[in-house]
Amino acid sequence: QVQLVESGGGLVQVGGSLRLSCAASGFTLNEYFIGWFRQAPGKEREGVSCMSNNNGSTYYTDSVKGRFSISRDNAKNMVYLQMNNLNAEDTGVYYCSAGHWVTVKAMCTSVYKYDYWGQGTQVTVSS
After folding, report:
1. Considering only CA atoms, which of 64, 74, 50 is closest in space to residue 18?
2. Separation of CA 104 from chain center
3. CA–CA dist 108, 35 (Å, integer)
4. Considering 104, 117, 119, 122, which has the largest number of Cβ atoms within 10 A of its Cβ?
């Protein structure tokens, strides 16, 4: 059974940091592109950061560049998102995703329902 399970969300103050984790099971993670998406209240889900499975290519949406860092540990079937200098606009539910893509930009600028998705973890940044 394919599963992606996110953890590490919570309440943090502006300027703080969180590290999200995503545990993958039921499929071979190293064969898939991975991504983190988020959905703020009343807004559509958006791609935050994506990473290829073959050459380490990464993509970050403009608003998180220099603050967030995506990584993967295929041996442990884990995906991570390190988030630093958080601000109120980073509040939302964060989802881990895995899929077959040609480019990381294509993955992150699409919300493809046939990819694998986790259930999400809430991140709340308060001032």
Report:
1. 64
2. 12
3. 7
4. 104
